Predict the 3D structure of the following.
Amino acid sequence: MSDSPTSDALVPVTVLTGFLGAGKTTMLNHILTAQHGRKYAVVVNEYGELGIDNDLVVDTDEEVFEMNNGCICCTVRGDLIRILTSLMKRRGKFDGIIIETTGLADPAPVAQTFFADEDVRSKTRLDAVVTVIDAMNIEQTLKESPEAHQQVAFADVLILNKTDLADEAQLEAVEKTLKSINSIAPVHRTKKGNVKLTDVLDQGGFDLERVLKNMPEFLEHPEHKHEADISSVSLSLKTPLDANKFQLWISALLQEKGADMLRTKGILNFEGQPDRFAFQAVHMMADGDSIGPWKENEPRESRLVFIGRNLNRPQLRRGFESCAIA
Ligand SMILES: Nc1nc2c(ncn2[C@@H]2O[C@H](COP(=O)(O)OP(=O)(O)OP(=O)(O)O)[C@@H](O)[C@H]2O)c(=O)[nH]1
């Protein structure tokens, strides 16, 4: 589709999508720290009232805009348009925009923003929808979550991540499944999001015509529902945590309820530790890392977000509070 002004004058936008915990932020960090001589403005949208992702995106010169309190494809779409419009006023400061959606976002309405909003359309160009796939969990996720299916179907590029957690036969089976949903998008395998930049950036254009062929209603107001049974619980605690108690509690919890716990992430304040600790889990598989000191004027407060099914808020709160130092 050629539109005036010429596409060179338009800022390229990459939409990074993929189900909860697939590795979007990990890949984003890989892109931001790579030597490409470019500067990206980053928009991060997450599900759950307490923002965590902002702390997990690497500290580079990049400007990171955080959008919480809703999913980018529904309630906060107006916010996205406002952020893009204000970014465009500082057009010369960056070469492109990367938007990381929540793991539950349907990419279609996000992509639609770049065609439906006149102001956005005249200044930006959707370069590609890149979908990150968790090689270990995707088959199960596709059975349970229509959003995951949409994310694969709608992708211009598919990144098959976490290849270290699956063997060759499993990877081939997943590739076959992906091809059966989206036969056009190339599939690139990665570990820890170590993608080749040329595989995801400068893809030269989201193919509107292909999408219109499959989804003639794309430019209208799409009907869009989230799975009603997925919810989030956000907890915070000012009293420092006892690291041992936390480890025991969270391991037992994930062991018992891991199937329902789609995603857990937190920034934790452990007693006696100068640094923030980032805790993360996808189902039962957890990891964690120190992520540097608390920022000046930042309250030393632990924040923990659960996203999943059948979450029992009072029980989770009681469990979390029981990890506080005595
Ligand atoms: N073993 C393994 N773990 C990975 C890989 N990529 C990411 N992870 C881990 O998977 C977890 C989720 O990674 P993120 O990059 O935060 O995933 P995300 O898609 O941004 O998650 P949400 O934004 O919460 O949906 C983290 O604990 C990562 O360290 C990989 O290739 N292999």
Summary: The mean pLDDT is 86. The pocket of guanosine-5'-triphosphate is lined by residues 18, 20-26, 53, 103, 161-162, 164-165, 191-193, 263, 265, 280, 282, 287 (CB under 6 Å).
